[in-house]
Fold these 2 entries.
Entry 1:
Amino acid sequence: MQIPPILSAPLHMIPIPLIERICRLMFGRIAKAHPGLFERLDEHRQKRFAFLPTDLPLAFVVVPGRQEISVLRKPVEIEADAVTEAPLFLLLALMEGRCDADALFFSRDLSVTGDMEAMLAMRNALDASNIDLQKDLAKLAGPFAPIARKVIGEIRDRALKDQNRPAGEAAAWN
Amino acid sequence: MELICPAGTPAAFHEAVDAGADAVYCGFRDETNARNFPGLNFSRDELREAIAYAKRKGTQTFVALNTFMRAGAEEIWYKGAADAVALGADALILADFGLMAHVAEKYPQQRLHVSVQASASNPDAINFLVDAFTAQRVVLPRTLTIADIARIGKNIRCEMEVFVFGGLCVMAEGRCSLSSYATGKSPNMNGVCSPASHVRYRKDGGELVSELGEFTINRFPAGEAAGYPTLCKGRFDIADSNGYAFEDPVSLDVMGELEALKAAGVKALKIEGRQRGKAYVAEVVSTMKAALNSPPDRRAPLLARLRTMSEGQKTTSGAYEKRWR
């Protein structure tokens, strides 16, 4: 499922510091919920990992060892050790380990460049981590957490149903 | 027949058990196993927890220590074997004869399986390992036909396990030097075939170019399904033609031959893929389990869905149904 331009267009106008602040809040929440998240990265913890959603005008650069995330507006020359490009919902599905990265690479939905050792370690660290964005991020909504959980869950389910993906992967979302 | 399933992380291990694996195979996070990839595999504590989980669910755990020991550093493999035994592994999957001898002597009660990496592919070789080290099962190489497997089965004194789905290694495993030639590292000694440290992907116009060390392995035009950057599945200029010298980017699937494999005396069916994600493990194991429990004519539609998760988005029965000389 691709995010339609009409939904991603407002991101051109929102100030980067604001988007960055929200991303840091979410990153912090996930890191707190999964303290061993980056243990498998070993010597790759201080490397710069760039994630480029192909359907958003933004790029995200993460340095796991410093729990640092920065947001850049495209087009931009990315300075990173490893770069992953895919539609946003696939990147989120990979974060949760709900899609298989190799299968997405074979189908050309995902592209990777740069330090493959670091990228492989990141892929395996995320796959081992049991991140559940619905559960982990809904808490940020405070008293509205139940509503947030429902909304995130519905978006996720919708993304999977709409996704023109092989049945095998779609069935792996649950 | 038993279904033997891969796990590269505790999360994938749980998925495999929950999806109905009869046994899960995995390895330690070091050079003792042939999938020694960054961020993959199990610490001692993780394996302890995984084995306990499997036991509660009635699933067996096989620990792969299936690289060849480095002279002077044997202690790494001996420690791996000692820990796997102490943690309660149901079987050790071994390739190195020296390590088999060590395990047979030190832990005579421990069940020992011969890894595909040992390249034991005829009755004499297999029976030697049974007699010398009390091997109870052999994992056969993916270079044999089903008729070959049936002939071997009649002449050996241990169980047979065969790969039925997943990555297809077309070489004499444990003897292949292609990765070593290109990168200095091999699955046999280092646990890595085409190590990520030597892999590079780049875009060239609309093409995806994969490189291993100093070799260009493939150029995939836009829209063409991609494969792993291994020399054995590279597309090369050979004389006046351009094509795959050894094998296309393709995965193995011989689930259509279950009855023939059963008749050949196969005891266990193995799924390749410890390097794959937990979503792949969950989907493949549950689908294979459903296929095993279905009548033969119902299996093909079930298994077709797995093709898109395969290398090159294609599958083959490979040497099992050899139609070439």
Note: The interface with chain A takes residues 8-12, 37-40, 195-197, 199-203, 208, 220, 222-227, 249, 275-280, 282-284, 287, 305-306, 308-313 of chain B (CB under 8 Å).
Entry 2:
Amino acid sequence: MATTEPRPAATQKRYRTLAVVKQEAITRVEKQLEDSVFVWPHLLVREFMAAALMTVVLLVVSLVVDAPLRAHSDPNLTPNPAKAPWYFLGLQEQLHYFPPTVAGVLLPGFTLVGLALLPYVDRNPSRAFEDRKLSISLFTIYAIFFAVTVLAGSFFRGSGWQWVWPWQHIYFDL
Amino acid sequence: MSTMNRGLLDRAGSYITSSQAWRSIFRHGYPDTPLNQSLVMMGNVFLHLHPVKVSRKAMKITYTWCLGGLSFFLFLVLTITGVFLMFYFVPEARVAYNNIQQIQSAVAFGNLVRNMHRWAAHLMVVTVTLHMIRVFYHGAYKPPREFNWVIGVTLFLTTLLLSFTGYLLPWDQIGYWAITVGSNMASYAPLLGAQAHNTLTGQPVGVGGPTLIRFYTLHVIGLPLAGAILMAVHFWRIRKDGGEAGPPPPARREIEQARAREMEVASLS
């Protein structure tokens, strides 16, 4: 350790990162002031109230309505109709119209992949409703299609997946 | 008498807040000045996901309806109630149903906690779906938020799978046959149908003991862990992409009309 030669690392110029300010960053100094308020207390109060309200609603519902529990499972006793959880009843209803591979795999798969790719397919930069007539119409039609099939599968299907009006009988568990 | 009490309380309060222990936890005064309102947001790990200031328009309740935040809050409620239920539930086909009956009848607050877990789970599927629909209609998936939308889609799928795996655990006729119908859909996958069903249920046909332990493990650790990591990225990116998108700006036509009016005024003067 008696050497007088500086170690190689010390000869190199060293930098310290003080700050990196992106062009459109919220920390940008010369940005025009927008109409903003402090998160503490204005936003936090709203978040707290939303969480408190949700807790009260959940507590009241849970005190009044019991979670369902039917008989012990029996592999030899198939209920008629046997229904999937409610959010999959749209797919089960579509199984009634389309071949199983289409309704059971291709449609849900296409929906998820299509949703994930949406920001890369929809290249329209405007966020205004008026400029997005096509994407909003397509999305709305698709959402209505799923909502209607979920409702049909939930409240309008009985034994043998036959059409049953809700006022006749409801085969639905949550 | 009352003035003396207040004097004592004040002195006790300032003694506590000026103690070394207090100041080692909170490195700023009460957030009622702009400086302290900034320091509290920057110095607290739970609060720092928020910016210090937020645009008044984006904060409007009727803009977001708090749907994303409520989904996260329901996830927290489900984690707490779920840990409670884990104390009493054994994922074994012969005892699972019996455990649920015991939770309902013999465990203190067991029925209430199970009800809360069930209803919060259904509600979370609803809030997550509505959150996604709301984000679509506001065009908030557009640049720079494209990838955060993709993470949101995987979080939506995680939520559905969390609900689906939890549905089997009571081991009653509802869950058993719902999962049988649901997992049969996987066997329609082209080429890999049988393998998909086998991987999901742990057996070639139907649903049984191996399915219960698989769904339980995914439900209590696999999916919540994946969800928590995805949520961390999701929330962090909201901040990094400039916070909430805010209400949609005016349409192209309105911008052009405003420009035309300006030109007219300029040409008249």
Note: The radius of gyration of chain A is 29 Å.
